[in-house]
Design goal:
There is one protein chain. The protein is α/β, with parallel strands linked by helices. Helix content is 43%, strand content 12%. The strands form five sheets. It has a seven-stranded parallel β-sheet. About 1% of the residues have low confidence.
Length: 659
C-alpha cells in the first residue's frame, strides 16, 4: 500500500509527508495528527529508497521515541526497523561515549543526579563566605547559561565570580568523573562546533524533530549543527511549551526562518483527539496568551461533543472521596476501564491519597510523579548505594555517601583524604581500603572512615537482598513503622525495570555484575530523564506536567485552585505575565489529554476544586498558612478564560446524590 493511500491531497498530513523542502516547520496543535503525518513521511522516504539508517527521528521523551520505533516497525517495508528514533540527550550521549571524543572533551559522560552535586558545593569552597543557597544559584546560572536568548552568546559566564565558580565546579566534576545532565548537550555541541569536519555533522539524510518547543537553546543549536545541509522537519507548538523551568526555548519554533533560512510552513490546527466541546474550550483558554503561532483550534467534525463537568467540594478530603466514588461508578457501569482514566493533580500528596483509596476499593491504580522521584534524603542515599554497588569505582556516588548525613558533607575530612590520595597516586576508595586494612593512617578523618564501613556493610546487605527479593529491596532503607510515601515512585520505577530485566542466573558473578550495571543505568536514566510507563492496566495518577504526550477517555483534573494553578513561586525572577502564560499552557495541555471517538465513549473531562484545606495539608504542599485550622481557597482563575462557553459549576455532593 503506497504512502499516500487514503490521504486528502489538501490535508496537512499529505503536505508534510510529500514535501521536498529542505526545511519544514510544522506547528501542530494537541492531538492534531502530527505523529501520523511523521509516520507517513517516513514511509514515503523509504519507498523513495532513502536508506532507513539515514533517517533520524529526535523526540523529547524516551516514551515518544519507543512509540515511534514501534509504529515504524509495523510498516511493511524492508529495513524499516533500522530507522533511528531517540531523544536528543541519548543522541548526544552516544557521541560523547566514543573513546576518541571523550579524550578530546576530557569529560566522562556519567550523568550526575541532582542530589549528587551537593557535596561539590561544599568542596569547592567558592565564593568564600557565601551560603550554600547562593552557590546553588550560581550552579543554576551555570546550568542555564545555554538557554539564553538568541542575541546572547550561550554558555559564557557574565562576570569573574561566575567564571571562577564555573572553573571550580567543572574541575570537581572532572576529578570525580561525572557530568551534569544539563552539560551533556553543551559539551557535545561545543565539540561539534570545534570540529566542523566531524562525521557526526550531516550524517543523516533526513531529520525529523518533534516537540521542538520543549527543547532549550543548546538542544536547538545541537540539532541544527548535526543536520548540516541535509533535510529537516521541525514539529512543535509554542502553546504546549511547559518546561521554561527547565530552560525550554519556545521562541525557537517561532523563529525557524531566522535560524535556518527559508522554510515551508505546514499547520495542523484540526484537533482530532479531543471532543469538540473541549476543543472549543481549550481554544478559548489559550487565546488569552500573547505571541501565539497557531491561531484558533478547529474541532474534528466526526468526534462527539464530549462531557465536561466542573465540580467544587467543601474541602480537599471531600474532593478525594467524591472523585474516587465517581471513578468507581464509571468502571462499575462498564463505561470505561481503569486504563481509560487519567487523574491529574498539581500536588502528589493528593494524587497519592486518591491512589490509596482507589486500591482500597479494588481498583488498580498507579501514581507517576517522576519529577519528585528522588527528593527525599533516604531515597537519595538508597540510589547512591545502588549505584556504587553496580559500579564499585564510581567516584560521584562514593563522594555523596561519604558525608551525606552531615550538612557540610564532612568537607574538611574529605579534603585531607583526597590530598593523601592525590599525593600517593591513589583513588579515594583505594585509600579508604588501605586505612581499613591498617596499612596507612590519616589523622582526623574518623567520621568518613566510619561512613565507609557503613557503606560497605549496606552494599553487602543490598546485594544479597537484590538477589533474594529484588522487588522489595527498598524496604531495607526505612523501618516498617514508618510511612515512606517518598519511596513510592522509585519503588514503582525499580519494579518495572526488574520485571523487564530479571536476574536469570544467580550463580554467575560476571552475569550478576552486568545485570546490576544494566538495571542501575536504566534507573539512572529514568531518574535523570523521567518518563511515563508504556504498559497500562490501571488508573494513571500524575502531575499535569507528566501528562504531556498522553491521552485518555476520562480525564480528571483535581485540586484546581488558584494557589496551585497558576502557581507563582515566591522567589521567582521571571516576569509575572510569563509565569501566568506558562501556567495557562500547562492547564491547556492537561485538559487536551481527553480523547473522543465517533461512536464509543464520548470523552469526559472533570475539573475539580475545593473551598478549604486544613493548614496541616496546606503547609505540606507549600501554601502559606495563618493561625486558623483551615485555609480558604478558590477555583483557578483560568476557568474564566472559557468565557461564555464555561459550564456551570456543580456542588460535588449534589452530583453524587444524583448518580
Amino acid at each position: 500500500m503506497n504512502w499516500n493511500y487514503g490521504l486528502d491531497p489538501e490535508s496537512a498530513t499529505y503536505k508534510l509527508a510529500s514535501s521536498d523542502s529542505r526545511v519544514i516547520r510544522s506547528v501542530a496543535g494537541p492531538g492534531s495528527g502530527k505523529s501520523y503525518a511523521i509516520k507517513k513521511r517516513i514511509i514515503r522516504l523509504l519507498e523513495n529508497s532513502i536508506k532507513p539508517e539515514k533517517i533520524l527521528a529526535i523526540t523529547f521523551t524516551r516514551t515518544s521515541a519507543a512509540d515511534l520505533r514501534r509504529e515504524i516497525s509495523n510498516i511493511n517495508i524492508s529495513g524499516c526497523d533500522k530507522v533511528i528514533a531517540r531523544t536528543v540527550h541519548s543522541h548526544a550521549l552516544l557521541i560523547l561515549h566514543r573513546s576518541e571524543i571523550k579524550t578530546i572533551v576530557s569529560r566522562e559522560p556519567r550523568m550526575v543526579i541532582e542530589h549528587e552535586i551537593a557535596p561539590a558545593l561544599r568542596d569547592i569552597e567558592y565564593p568564600l563566605e557565601t551560603s550554600i543557597k547562593e552557590r546553588e544559584e550560581l550552579l543554576e546560572t551555570y546550568k542555564s547559561a545555554w538557554a539564553n536568548t538568541q542575541r546572547d552568546e550561550p554558555g559564557k559566564p557574565k562576570n569573574d565570580t561566575e567564571e571562577e565558580f564555573t572553573n571550580r565546579i567543572v574541575s570537581w566534576l572532572k576529578y570525580h568523573q561525572g557530568m551534569l545532565v544539563g552539560e551533556v548537550i553543551p559539551i557535545a555541541l561545543r565539540y561539534l562546533q570545534d570540529n566542523p569536519a566531524s562525521s557526526e555533522i550531516g550524517k543523516y539524510d533526513v531529520l525529523l524533530v518533534d516537540e521542538y518547543q520543549d527543547l532549550n537553546r543548546a538542544e536547538q543549536e545541537f540539532i541544527k549543527i548535526i543536520t548540516g545541509n541535509k533535510n529537516i522537519v521541525i514539529v512543535g507548538d509554542d502553546d504546549q511549551s511547559i518546561y521554561r523551568f527547565k530552560n525550554a526555548h519556545p521562541e525557537g519554533i517561532r523563529e525557524i526562518e531566522t535560524f535556518y533560512g527559508q522554510c515551508e510552513n505546514i499547520i495542523f490546527n484540526e484537533i482530532r483527539r479531543c471532543p469538540k466541546f473541549i476543543t472549543r474550550l481549550a481554544s478559548s483558554l489559550i487565546s488569552k496568551n500573547s505571541n501565539r503561532t497557531l491561531g484558533e483550534l478547529v474541532p474534528y467534525e466526526k468526534n462527539q461533543e464530549g462531557i465536561v463537568n466542573i465540580f467544587q467540594w467543601f474541602n480537599n478530603n471531600q474532593e478525594i472521596d467524591g472523585i474516587v466514588k465517581i471513578i468507581k461508578s464509571e468502571i462499575e457501569k462498564k463505561l470505561v476501564m481503569p486504563e481509560d482514566i487519567l487523574v491529574l493533580s498539581p500536588r502528589r500528596l493528593f494524587g497519592y491519597r486518591i491512589k490509596d483509596k482507589l486500591i482500597l476499593n479494588g481498583i488498580a491504580a498507579k501514581s507517576c510523579f517522576r519529577e519528585d522521584i528522588i527528593k527525599n534524603k533516604k531515597v537519595q542515599r538508597a540510589y547512591s548505594l545502588l549505584f556504587l554497588l553496580a559500579f564499585p569505582h564510581d567516584k560521584i556516588s562514593l563522594r555523596y555517601l561519604l558525608g551525606c548525613k552531615a550538612s557540610d558533607f564532612k568537607k574538611e575530612q574529605y579534603k585531607k583524604l583526597r590530598e593523601y590520595a592525590d599525593n600517593n597516586n591513589l583513588s579515594i576508595r583505594e585509600t579508604l581500603d588501605l586505612i581499613l586494612n591498617e596499612k596507612i593512617n590519616i589523622p582526623n578523618i574518623k567520621g568518613i572512615v566510619n561512613d565507609y564501613r557503613e557503606i560497605l556493610n549496606d552494599i553487602s546487605v543490598i546485594r544479597r537482598r537484590l538477589l533474594e527479593d529484588p522487588e522489595n529491596v527498598f524496604e531495607y532503607f526505612y523501618k516498617e513503622s514508618e510511612i515512606e510515601i517518598d519511596f513510592d515512585e522509585i519503588i514503582s520505577l525499580f519494579q518495572d525495570i526488574i520485571t523487564d530485566c530479571p536476574c536469570e542466573n544467580k550463580e554467575d558473578d560476571e552475569y550478576i555484575a552486568n545485570w546490576l550495571k544494566n538495571i542501575i543505568l536504566n534507573l539512572s536514566e529514568s531518574i535523570s530523564l523521567p518518563d511515563i510507563p508504556e504498559d497500562i492496566e490501571h488508573v494513571r495518577i500524575m502531575s499535569l506536567h507528566s501528562s504531556k504526550g498522553l491521552s485518555a477517555k476520562f480525564v480528571i483534573m483535581i485540586s484546581i485552585i488558584d494557589d496551585l494553578i497558576p502557581y507563582i513561586p515566591k522567589d521567582t525572577k521571571d516576569e509575572l505575565y510569563e509565569i501566568i502564560e506558562e501556567q495557562r499552557r500547562l492547564f491547556y495541555v492537561a485538559m487536551t489529554r481527553c480523547k473522543s471517538s465517533e461512536n464509543e465513549y464520548p470523552g469526559r473531562l472533570i475539573i475539580s476544586s475545593f473551598t478549604s484545606i486544613s493548614t496541616i495539608d496546606a503547609s505540606r504542599i507549600g501554601l502559606s498558612t495563618g493561625k486558623s485550622k483551615y485555609l480558604k481557597t478558590q477555583v483557578s482563575k483560568f476557568l474564566d478564560d472559557f468565557g461564555k462557553l464555561k459550564p456551570n459549576s456543580i456542588l460535588g455532593d449534589r452530583f453524587l446524590e444524583s448518580m
